[in-house]
Write a structure and sequence with these properties.
Radius of gyration: 15 Å
Largest sheet: 7 strands, mixed
CATH architecture: 3-Layer(aba) Sandwich
Number of helices: 7
Helix content: 25-40%
Structural class: alpha/beta
CATH class: Alpha Beta
Strand content: 15-25%
Shape: globular
Distance between the termini: 29 Å
Strand order of the largest sheet: 5-2-1-6-7-11-10
């Protein structure tokens, strides 16, 4: 059965934290839908332009997983959007993969959606206080897995984070084969 993932972005998303999961999940055969807050291209923090497939207001499906890239502006915009928070909570309640990296764990999953209470999580160290205030047990790891919730620290964790998403969705063997092929040692 094909796995389907929704990746949600807004202007100011961190370039590598957005593109790495898109690239790696697609290579792994995951059916990826990129949704933004509005029609048209999204301007990432460092100049990458993305053309999303749809907008969040048109999403009413439950996917096998939902992913939130970081970038402070992106995380703030996503956290302020009621539909984004509803989607995060729905996926969490159904036990589907919920993943976020950098500023998104603290802003989107922690403060706005309230789904990190009692869970291990990591994120941008600049927001560890916000992550802890949301009830998360901050790990300071590059990537942290707590059940169906996967969080990543920041740009340097983009590839390990993406590979962990692949491992969760389609298996460790596939994730390890990519890492081996790319001469990348997984943490």
């Amino acid at each position: 059965m094909d796995k389907r993932v929704l990746l949600v972005v807004a202007d100011g998303c961190e370039d590598i934290e957005t593109v790495a999961p898109i690239d790696v999940l697609t290579r792994a055969g995951v059916k990826l839908t990129v949704a933004s807050l509005r029609e048209g291209p999204v301007a990432a923090a460092y100049g990458t332009r993305l053309l999303p497939d749809t907008t969040v207001d048109k999403v009413d499906l439950l996917y096998d997983g939902i992913v939130f890239p970081g970038g402070r502006r992106n995380a703030e915009l996503l956290a302020a959007n009621p539909k984004v928070i509803e989607l995060a909570r729905r996926h969490n309640t159904e036990g589907k993969l919920v993943a976020a990296i950098c500023a998104a764990p603290s802003h989107v999953l922690g403060e706005a959606a309230g789904i990190l209470k009692g869970r291990k999580a990591t994120g941008d160290p600049a927001f560890n206080d916000r992550l802890a205030a949301s009830g998360a047990h901050v790990t300071d790891e590059l990537v942290t897995v707590d059940g169906h919730v996967i969080t990543g620290m920041g740009p340097g964790a983009a590839l390990p984070f993406a590979l962990m998403l692949v491992e969760y969705l389609v298996g460790r063997q596939i994730a390890d084969s990519f890492a081996s092929k790319w001469h990348f040692k997984r943490p």
